[in-house]
Design a protein that fits this description.
- By secondary structure, the chain is α+β, with helices and mostly antiparallel strands.
- It has helices spanning 54-66, 161-177, 218-237, 285-292, 299-310, 314-321, 324-335, 340-358, 369-381, 386-399, 417-429, 432-439, 445-456, 463-474; strands spanning 5-15, 74-75, 78-81, 91-94, 101-110, 113-126, 130-133, 138-141, 148-154, 190-199, 210-215, 247-252, 257-263, 273-274, 281-282.
- It has two domains: 4-289, no CATH class; 417-474, Arc Repressor Mutant, subunit A, CATH 1.10.10.410.
- Helix 3 (218-237) links the parallel strand 11 (210-215) and strand 12.
- Helix 6 (314-321) crosses helix 8 and helix 11 (417-429) crosses helix 13.
- The longest helix is centred in the middle third of the chain and has 20 residues, at 218-237.
- The structure holds adenosine-5'-diphosphate and magnesium ion.
- The site of adenosine-5'-diphosphate (ADP) has 15 residues, from strand 1, strand 9 and strand 10.
Length: 475
């Protein structure tokens, strides 16, 4: 634990999913064969002009609304000028003067406590091409050139690595819930710049911030922040705080340390100006109202609903909302009439464990909600025991057959009260000596009677009902 207060601000880049790139008609899919999804514009051929993809604009406005930002009166873009081999035009089209959202806020949960995160802005821009470096050469893949990217910049409002990562995790889910992005860190769809400074607990001014660029996993964000806090604290302890410079560093995964890249003093002047090839257009109230209708129920709201309406525990609800696919599966179960608690139980105890083990998505999980229902309905009615239900679940999954094939009369649990009473009466008639002994104080004979019934029914009698009936008859 550092004796200083750490302050963190995040810049989160998220690759958007869309029918085509943001300014060209090329397919937005950069994990294909290199250079398969490229139009002349994406390679900056002379004479090409950008065409704005409305879907990307709408999705960026939707995110602006979700983050409770203010929207500008007009949507337009700026040029950020610099040269790099992955940027064939020599400039990136982005938003500097009028981001699609500014001054937002969103509440997140961190270990059962709420935190309001302040959003500086969110803006829409195009991604660059990607470079593959080999020993002697570098190759350029233009598939990513022009892929829509949302950049979200927070205020310096996080005070620990835990808080920063909790926010990133939550935003990842928001992007998925809103259908804005798959937000898959493994596919490189989320990249973060992390800014860290430290200060004395009650100081009124923020310390000098260090920026760590292009971190591609949340685990690395976490480690990078903690390493920086430690590094800066040690310099401060040693009276060498002036050595903490406004600089850009990178996180080195192997050593778990951060390494200086360049000083902010050498910052490039990007010579921003309004992109002249894209007309401004007005963001009307009516348009925003239309987009608002597309905002789905977000994870925190869903959680609240699960707890209030379906009586789930907070713990269970938290697991279910972790992935939109889990939440969708659960809601489908409830929609087709499965008892929510049982559905949640199956999902958490069996299904999530199974798909994690198999490394598959729940969308590819064989037992769709309607199949699960076949099992749960019988279990609910008491026709099969929970043990049998589990067996049927596993069998159906193994053999890829609908569970109803395994629910036969033969293995059905006996829950017919009249039938059970008949069986029990016969057994009691044949065990007069034991009944006498029972009444004379050998109460552990109760289990003997239960055992007799189970034997007679080959283990299929509903044990709770058997106990109930026996109690009634004996006492
Ligand atoms: P720059 O001009 O270097 O890009 P900005 O003011 O635009 O700096 O902020 C970039 C990011 O750095 C934002 O996410 C912001 O929250 C964060 N940030 C700004 N000052 C600090 C600080 N003192 N400590 C930590 N993060 C900071
Ligand atoms: Mg900045």
């Amino acid at each position: 634990m550092s004796k200083y207060k750490a302050v963190i601000g995040l810049e989160m880049h998220c690759e958007m999913q869309s029918n085509s790139k943001v300014f060209s008609s090329a397919e937005n899919s950069y994990n294909d064969t290199p250079n398969a999804n490229v139009r002349p514009l994406d390679m900056a051929f002379p004479g090409t002009l950008p065409t704005v993809n409305k879907e990307c604009i709408c999705k960026s406005l939707l995110m602006s609304l979700v983050l409770n930002c203010s929207q500008p009166e007009y949507m337009y873009f700026d040029r950020k000028n610099y040269y790099y081999p992955d940027l064939p035009k020599g400039y990136q089209i982005t938003q500097m003067h009028a981001p699609v959202g500014v001054n937002g806020k969103i509440t997140i949960d961190i270990d059962g406590r709420e935190k309001e995160v302040l959003i500086h802005d969110i803006h829409l821009e195009e991604d660059s091409a990607s470079l593959d470096h080999y020993r002697d050469i570098s190759l350029i893949d233009y598939n990513r050139s022009g892929v829509p990217l949302l950049e979200l910049v927070t205020e310096p409002c996080f005070y620990s690595a835990e808080e920063a990562v909790a926010f990133l995790e939550y935003m990842r889910r928001i992007y998925q819930y809103c259908g804005v992005s798959e937000a898959d860190t493994k596919k490189g769809q989320i990249r973060c710049d992390v800014n860290v400074s430290i200060m004395d607990e009650n100081a009124s001014e923020l310390g000098t911030k260090v920026e760590m660029k292009n971190i591609n996993s949340f685990a690395n964000v976490y480690d990078a922040i903690n390493y920086e806090i430690k590094r800066q604290s040690e310099l401060k302890d040693a009276g060498r705080y002036d050595e903490v410079e406004q600089e850009t560093r990178r996180f080195d995964e192997e050593s778990g340390t951060t390494i200086r890249m360049r000083s902010k003093v050498d910052a490039i002047d990007y010579k921003y100006f309004v992109e002249p090839n894209i007309p401004k257009y007005k963001i009307t109230k009516e348009w925003l109202e239309e987009i608002k209708k597309d905002i789905p129920m977000l994870p925190r709201e869903r959680k609240e609903k699960y707890i209030k309406e379906y009586n789930l525990s907070e713990y269970d609800a938290n697991i279910i909302i972790k992935e939109k696919d889990y939440a969708d599966y659960f809601e489908e179960c409830v929609k087709i009439g499965i008892n929510p608690k049982l559905a949640a139980n199956y999902l958490i105890v069996q299904i999530i464990a199974y798909i994690n083990k198999e490394g598959i998505s729940i969308k590819d999980f064989y037992l769709k909600p309607e199949y699960l229902k076949q099992i749960i309905v019988e279990q609910d009615k008491g026709n099969i025991s929970s043990k049998q239900a589990k067996e049927i679940f596993n069998k159906a999954l193994d053999e890829r057959k609908e569970p109803k094939n395994y629910i036969s009369k033969d293995n059905a649990q006996i829950s017919d009260k009249n039938l059970l009473e008949d069986i029990i009466n016969t057994i009691l008639d044949n065990n007069q000596t034991q009944i006498e002994a029972y009444h004379n104080g050998k109460t552990n004979l109760f289990d003997y009677f239960v055992g007799q019934v189970m034997k007679e029914t080959k283990g299929k009698a509903n044990p709770n009902m058997v106990k109930e009936i026996l109690k009634e008859k004996l006492d």
